[in-house]
Design a protein that fits this description.
Blueprint (H helix, E strand, L loop, with lengths): L4 E2 L4 E5 L3 H10 L2 E2 L3 E3 L15 E11 L12 E7 L6 E5 L2 E2 L6 E10 L4 E9 L5 E10 L6 E10 L4 E10 L14 E9 L2 E8 L5 E12 L2 E2 L5 E4 L3 E10 L4 E12 L8 H15 L1 H19 L2 E3 L2 H17 L26 H13 L2 H13 L1 H10 L23 H4 L5 H16 L3 H21 L1 E3 L4 E3 L17 H24 L1 H11 L3 H14 L4 E2 L4 E2 L23 H4 L2 H6 L8 H7 L6 H11 L11 H10 L3 H12 L16 H15 L3 E3 L2 E4 L9 E8 L2 E8 L2 E8 L3 E5 L2 E5 L4 E5 L2
Parallel strand pairs: 27-31
Antiparallel strand pairs: 1-2, 2-9, 3-4, 4-5, 5-6, 7-8, 7-13, 9-10, 10-11, 11-12, 12-20, 13-19, 14-15, 15-16, 16-17, 16-20, 18-19, 21-28, 22-23, 24-25, 26-27, 28-29, 29-30, 30-33, 31-32
The structure holds beta-D-glucopyranose.
Length: about 775
Amino acid sequence: MNEYLKHDEWCIIEEGFNPENHQSSESIFSLGNGNMGQRAMFEEAYSGKTLQGTYIAGVYYPDKTRVGWWKNGYPEYFAKVLNAPNWIGIDVKINGEMLDLAKCKLSEFVRTLNMKEGVLKRSFIATMSNGNQVKVEGKRFLSIVTSEVGVIRYSVTALNFDGKISFNSYIDADVKNEDSNYDEKFWDVLNAKSITGEAYITARTKKLDFHVCMGMKYDLYKDDKKQTVVPSLIEEEKYVSNTVVVDICQGEEVVIYKYASVLSSLNHSKTEIMNDAEKVVSEAHQKGYDSLLNEHVAAWADKWANSDITIEGDVAAQQAIRFNIFQLNQTYTGEDERLNIGPKGFTGEKYGGSTYWDTEAYCVPFYLSTSRPEVTRNLLVYRHKQLQKAIENAEKLGFNSGAALYPMVTMNGEECHNEWEITFEEIHRNGAIAFAIYNYIRHTDDKAYLAEYGLDVLVGISRFWSQRVTYSTAKKKYVMLGVTGPNEYENNVNNNWYTNTIACWCMSYTQEAFKYVKESNPVRYEEIMKNLNFDFDQETSRWNDILENMHFPMDEETGVFMQQDGFMDKEQLTASDLDPQFRPINQFWSWDRILRSCFIKQADVLQGIYLFEENYDMETIKKNYNFYEPRTLHESSLSPCIHSILASKIGDIDSAYEMYLRTSRLDLDDYNREAHEGLHITSMAGTWMSIVEGFGGMRVVNGQLSLKPLIPEKWKSYSFKVRFRGNLVNVRVSEEGVGVINEEGEDISIFIVDDEYVIEKSSSLVIEHA
Ligand code: BGC
């Protein structure tokens, strides 16, 4: 733990500068707008430790992999979102001396991330080696209205001297990824141009030839009066800048406004990209800082109006949930179906910015409830577009006839992961992709999605499962051999209960989907059957045989679902038997020891119970929770939220709250001392789930919204909003009861605890002691 940030309801605040925390703060104070993002590095020079990170959604590099022992089927490359040219840089010289926070004396340093407005601020007083003192204030934001624009307001006030201040405002394309496998740089610069008042760089990525152009313009003001200063220009191969020098007297403030455009060939023609960057930056410049800021703040207000969660009586929890929601909204805005959500978003390089099952299993529920349906739809369409690649991926592993295995890690549909036990065996990810389709439809009622895109994906996935099982003549059952479940502390196990469960569910749901499309859209049905070459009777009779005869490991004595065959042969210990100083165990134990132990990295059987809760009675849920929770180490950030939801379900509110806290402040309090690598963006959606699905008990039951609210003892009240089939429902839970407002849409009928209530449009309902 490292609790150096102040608690506040809307802001993240760091007071005083400790270089030891700087890289964590660079992650925590990150900005993003769905189209691009960046760590909170400084505008001015900084010679201390920093991880410079500027990322553009969808621009990546296929870095050649490093593996110890090559295995057939491994991918050739690992895709990485690239650290892109840095456009925020402003070198500041005070009477010829470079302002560098690692070298001057600092006081009154405050860094603030205003989450309500989406603005990063910094202020400090610096004393230079010659005694000159300046007060500096910086503000920047990445517009969520014009997502190719970033803006900085940077001001310097001379506190105790008269002299000269110079600002060198630059774009630097000489950047590299820290995680480059062979220490290569991934960019070639095509064009660099610096003219009076503006500068541009176009760079292309090696291998895939993505083009990116960054442009900048600026204005200079002294005590609110615009200054016209002739700049000196630098135009080097990978670096362009304008330097302006101004006279300053004690007490005067000089402000530079820097406007940047950040364009990529995903959205612009390569031949026009520099012209377009000029246009975008000129428009931003013309609009001016205040207008850009105002429209940006208004757009954030709209986002918050739909997605905020309020918590009364617990500032730390309030700050944390807003931080999680803010980061999710910065990472993915759902306008572009080519984009997805990397586990670290735009805040660091770990996991390469690629897509994992995290998106479907964790992020989809968040976006379903807090955004327009198209936002989640685009996440589903992303996978639909990659179906052919998933089929090729399965073919590489020996499957056929349209069986699809979606990759564990991907950028464009091709597998990027290269550890056999995950790449080939952690196949449960396929199930999450099918489940997300079901989840989307039950939430939005957009059943037409099945005919348009969904069914193709479901068939590919079901075909994979039907080929992946083996019929065991010994057991007279179908079995699934050699898999890794969500718990990655077990590899190459037989009959992971979760994987077998989700595989069967997929084959059953695909049949329901067929039925629906046949009835609602017979023409499209015929077309799909033909395109997929689907022999309905033959294929579904095999699926049904598997459904009826699948082996699900179970411990007769405890009545608990077994995580996999043979789980009870392990020495049965619990997390409390471990010495906390040797946690996380993956940093202290050999892999062999981990594999032989009963310790569980993350929700596995419980992940299945969470997804298919309606199939199990309360006693079964309790039994399994009580068995698995003590053995689970939660060494993946994706884990505590699922346990928290189930703890709420079984009425263990204290455990639910304890696990909620662990996920919600994971990065803010740097529980695992790894915030410097980037934030746990995808598990932030899990934090949201632990409030809404956990404490709020929100479910969709038979097509209707249902709530079973509980409230942690420490809270006076909490509220959240859920978009559901055209309605926007605002739920407030307090010690006294539950209030529900039907804010948007027609009349809605909702189950609260066990009773059904109709809430007319624009009206509300209050139930005391629900
Ligand atoms: C987890 C996976 C997850 C990945 C990316 C791993 O530590 O075990 O379930 O997909 O991180 O978040």
